[in-house]
């Protein structure tokens, strides 16, 4: 069903369908076939594609160097509640035409923040009720909600980690409302993105105290949500810096260590964003692997950075090799735990047609679908897995197996080294692995 409000915002654009790789229709999927089964699940089940409410319906193309260029009709109205309803109408029409099942939101994406907290709360309650009606008609669901405890000047020194307790309390009140909205909308996860949870200078920062405060804040937020009946995952979204000099959830390994230290690892998982991974000087697939090894691969924010720009450009994914390698990790980990693939990406400043929003999401979905198909073939129909196993075969029996089982002490290893004598080099066959990837894309 295509869900329309009082007006149609994307006139001339109907339901986006799968037409196959030979289609010349730019408004059709070539690889993303929602009902196609890959590795035991449909593509729809694997990905749970979601649309980012903020970029796709709240963005206007403005940047640090220029004014808005995306003059879309749903953003024309200035009265906050009507403007929010128009945006919701445009969002649900778009998501239903795309055939996706989910969206993600920040609290003040749904409606403009009020002049005081009470007004903000009333506005958010109003829009939560409106979205419940839209959900009931469309069947479109919330993958996750979150709170924007970053943009307002009160959070210039952080939210949960702010040195002023009054700001910490205000952040908690805002997160409570965002949790309430997420629960009321049957959200499946809740994200904490620490946009300013870090420091600008160590000179005026008590890092240990701030980390303790963040651990306490997240613990109390978890406890509150559980008391309200929320059964989903809480997600941490790592990012190394920007706007802070150093953020406390720098990367997956740092975030996992933090969660374990503060006893949060049973309730929290990781939301891996591609561009944040590369800002941390990692690859997307590396961050997926780190999260997967700890049983914390919760969700994905799909985008990419620009290889020549050192900031968070949040472009739509189009690097098929990168995503194929990521899908190898994805499949071997058994997929995501509770989350999905959220297109946390924005069309470019000079992409000024509403059609461009469709083209961007179609391209992103097709890249992930094509990568999934390639990764499945690599795992099931190539020597990839056997070559990886062969590299570590010396640990499958004999002394190598005894080492893995903890049966050898360090003197044993010394004696074995003496017995083995000088060693021949064993090739890692990296180029062969790379060729296997390229062959199946």
Automatic annotation (TrEMBL):
PROSITE patterns with a match to the protein in the record: XYLOSE_ISOMERASE
Location in or out of the cell: Cytoplasm
Keyword Isomerase attached: yes
A single cellular component GO annotation: cytoplasm
Alphabetized GO MF terms: magnesium ion binding; xylose isomerase activity
Protein encoded by which gene: xylA
Transmembrane segments: none
HAMAP family in the cross-refs: Xylose_isom_A
Any one GO BP annotation for this protein: D-xylose metabolic process
UniProt EC number: 5.3.1.5
Residues that hold Mg(2+) 2 according to the record: 273, 276, 312
Cofactor(s) for this UniProt protein: Mg(2+)
Protein's name according to its UniProt entry: Xylose isomerase
Keywords: Carbohydrate metabolism, Cytoplasm, Isomerase, Magnesium, Metal-binding, Xylose metabolism
Assembly description: Homotetramer.
Cofactor: record remark: Binds 2 magnesium ions per subunit.
List of residues binding Mg(2+) 1: 237, 273, 301, 344
Organism: Flavobacterium pectinovorum
SUPFAM superfamilies attached to this UniProt entry: Xylose isomerase-like
Catalytic activity: alpha-D-xylose = alpha-D-xylulofuranose
């Amino acid at each position: 069903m295509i869900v329309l409000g009082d007006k149609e915002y994307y006139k001339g654009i109907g339901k986006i369908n799968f037409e196959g790789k030979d289609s010349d229709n730019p408004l059709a999927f070539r690889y993303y076939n929602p009902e196609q089964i890959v590795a035991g699940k449909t593509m729809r089940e694997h990905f749970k594609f979601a649309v980012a409410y903020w970029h796709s319906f709240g963005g206007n193309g403005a940047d640090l160097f220029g004014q808005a260029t995306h003059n879309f009709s749903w953003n024309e109205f200035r009265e906050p509640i009507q403007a929010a309803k128009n945006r919701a109408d445009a969002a649900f029409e778009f998501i239903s035409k795309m055939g996706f099942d989910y969206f993600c939101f920040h609290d003040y994406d749904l409606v403009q923040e009020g002049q005081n907290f009470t007004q903000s709360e009333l506005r958010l309650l109003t829009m939560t009720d409106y979205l419940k009606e839209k959900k009931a008609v469309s069947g479109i669901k919330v993958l996750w909600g979150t709170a924007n405890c970053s943009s307002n000047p009160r959070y210039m020194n952080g939210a949960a980690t702010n040195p002023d307790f009054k700001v910490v309390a205000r952040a908690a009140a805002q997160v409570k409302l965002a949790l309430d909205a997420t629960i009321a909308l049957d959200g499946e996860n809740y994200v904490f993105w620490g946009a300013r949870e870090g420091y600008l200078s160590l000179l005026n920062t008590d890092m240990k105290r701030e980390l303790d405060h963040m651990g306490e804040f997240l613990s109390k937020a978890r406890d509150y949500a559980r008391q309200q009946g929320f059964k989903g995952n809480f997600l941490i979204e790592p990012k190394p810096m920007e706007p802070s000099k150093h953020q406390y959830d720098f990367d997956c390994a740092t975030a996992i260590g933090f969660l374990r230290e503060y006893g949060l690892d049973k309730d929290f998982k990781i939301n891996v964003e591609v561009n944040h991974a590369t800002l941390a000087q990692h690859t997307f697939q590396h961050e997926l692997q780190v999260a997967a090894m700890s049983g914390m691969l919760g969700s994905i924010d799909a985008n990419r950075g620009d290889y020549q720009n050192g900031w968070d450009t949040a472009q739509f994914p189009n690097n098929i090799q990168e995503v194929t390698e990521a899908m190898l990790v994805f499949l071997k980990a058994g997929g995501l735990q509770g989350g999905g693939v959220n297109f946390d990406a924005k069309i470019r400043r000079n992409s000024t047609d509403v059609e461009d929003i469709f083209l961007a999401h179609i391209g992103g979905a097709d890249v992930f679908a094509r990568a999934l198909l390639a990764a499945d073939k690599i795992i099931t129909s190539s020597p990839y897995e056997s070559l990886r196993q062969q590299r570590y075969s010396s640990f499958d029996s004999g002394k190598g197996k005894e080492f893995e089982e903890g049966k050898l002490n360090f003197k044993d290893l010394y004696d074995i080294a003496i017995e083995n004598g000088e060693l021949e080099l064993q090739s890692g066959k990296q180029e062969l692995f790379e060729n296997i990837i390229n062959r199946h894309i």
